[in-house]
Amino acid sequence: MYALAKALLLPPACLLIAAAVARSRRIAAAAALVALLLSLPAVSSTLLYGLARTFPPLPADGPLPAGAQAIVILGAEVRDYGEFAARSPGPLTLERLRYGAALHRRSGLPILVTGGPPRRGGAAVAAAMRQTLAAEFGVPVAWAETQAADTYDNARFSAHILLPLGIRRILLVTHAWHLARAVPEFRAAGFEVIPAPTGYRGPPAWSGLTMAPDPNALTDAYYAAHEYLGRLYYQFRHWRRSSAVEAEDAAALP
């Protein structure tokens, strides 16, 4: 139910629904126009770059930032592929695993993977991540956090595992556009974060090719909208949590 609601509330579905049900031709035309704009690679890349530009990629070779004690890889999705016996990491998760494995080979640092069961049930994302890293990348996983439902949970549940072991400074592996939401959560959980973005894209190029509609651009626009809305929701949730703490403190005063 959650996945369906999210798909309907984010572009392009929300725009197509608006265009279909709008009583005003102007509203329908505006929704269709926004959907068209989001299908342009130049536009969707601009949206993603706005999220990712604060977190440039780490050097492709040579030494990594000093002092890191572990690599934390955030899970995204799993899928049922007919050629595999069990659910396997989807494309986003695989990109993160590939980069996490590369960082492990460069640094020798232990890996924690984090991701709970999909909302529809089944095995945890982290379980599929651990199996794939071991069987397909030849990389061991030291810890698998299997309960997290979102980025906030990724951070606090990872902290429950690593902080008692004295592991505080981490390389945080996720997509560049997701780090804008993930880094503050992990810092709030008590970590010193070294962002390790994958899927990083530089400034968008505005050319004839990037101004032609492309279905992949709609996927990018979906990810961008998901992150921008997710950041707003997390800011609201932190505000509510801090307000509740302040109210409790005020009530405790004599």
Features:
254 residues; alpha/beta; Rossmann fold; 2 domains; 5-stranded parallel β-sheet; two-stranded antiparallel ribbon; 9 helices; 12% strand; globular
Count of discrete structural domains: 2
Rg to the nearest angstrom?
A: 20 Å
Span of the ends, CA to CA: 46 Å
Q: pLDDT average, as an integer?
A: 89
The poorly predicted ranges are none
SS-derived structural category: alpha/beta
Q: How many strands, what sense, and barrel or not for the largest sheet?
A: 5 strands, parallel
Instruction: Please provide the count of β strands.
Output: 7
Outline: globular
Beta-strand level of the residues, as a percent range?
A: 5-15%
How many helices? The count is: 9
Oligomer: single chain
Portion in helices? 40-55%
- CATH topology value of the largest domain: Rossmann fold
Order of helices and strands: HHHHEEEHEHEHEHEH
Under CATH, the homologous superfamily of the largest domain reads: HUPs
State the strand order across the main sheet.
Answer: 5-4-1-6-7
Q: In CATH, what is the class of the largest domain? A: Alpha Beta
